Amino acid sequence: MRTRKISSAIQPWNGWASVRLKYIGAILLTILAGLSSSSAQDQEKEKILQLEQLNQIRQQQQSKALLDSAINTMQAGEYQEAEAIFLSVLKTIKTVPSELAYFFGENSFYLKKYRQSVDWLTKYIQLKGTTGTFSSQAVSYLKRAEDGLLAEMKQQKSVATEILSKDYDIDCGPSGKVVCPVCSGRTVIVKKNYLSETFTTCPYCDKHGFMSCSDYNKLLRGQLKAGTE
Q: Against a cut of 0.70, is the pTM above it?
């Protein structure tokens, strides 16, 4: 009789253990399925990110190749063709590198688009000052372009349609700022009259005489308001 009682007690226990094992197994399978799904989603996101990065690198390489082609074409004396390539570069980039600003300004000078040349060469000098790779050449071409523009204005010639740098975001380089062109980095604006001089704090730059790249681009478009720093 005792053996039968023990046996009858074990059978329900075995059944309950089996149910629990099945339940735990189902939970584990669900967790594993979730982990697998999450892992697959992470892998998909990683692939998309890699593709975007590759696409960005490819676009940068294409833009650099176009810029090199434009420079070579300009140096070969094909200025009209070079300008067309420069414009293609401008259509494919978000920010303008200083190198492009210089060469587009030089090419514009050869095309006798003096205002356009002055505009882009000035931007290069503002960005690089006297330490840029092409600073000395930029100063020389700028002077010649200014002389050409002055002569052109005196003769009241009609100037061809021009592409100006204010239509694009200028890349200010790694620092993300430029010397304030309003006060020339002095942090004060000097106004002179016949009797005296007045000094006012420049409302466009920081206390060190620098202007952020964002404000610099707004200034070029005539959109910068005083005291935005």
A: no
| pLDDT per position as a tens digit, 123-164 | 999 989 888 899 999 999 999 999 999 888 877 545 456 677
Pull the structure tokens for residue 192: 């002179």
Query: What ranges in the chain are assigned the alpha helix state H?
Result: 2-75, 79-92, 98-110, 114-128, 135-154, 213-221
**CA gap 188, 203 in Å, rounded:** 9
Sign of CA dihedral 131, 135, 140, 146: negative
Q: 212 pairs with which residues across the strands?
A: 177
pLDDT digits (tens, 9 = 90+) for 57-105: 777 778 888 899 999 999 999 999 999 999 999 988 888 889 999 999 9
d(CA 191, CA 197): 6
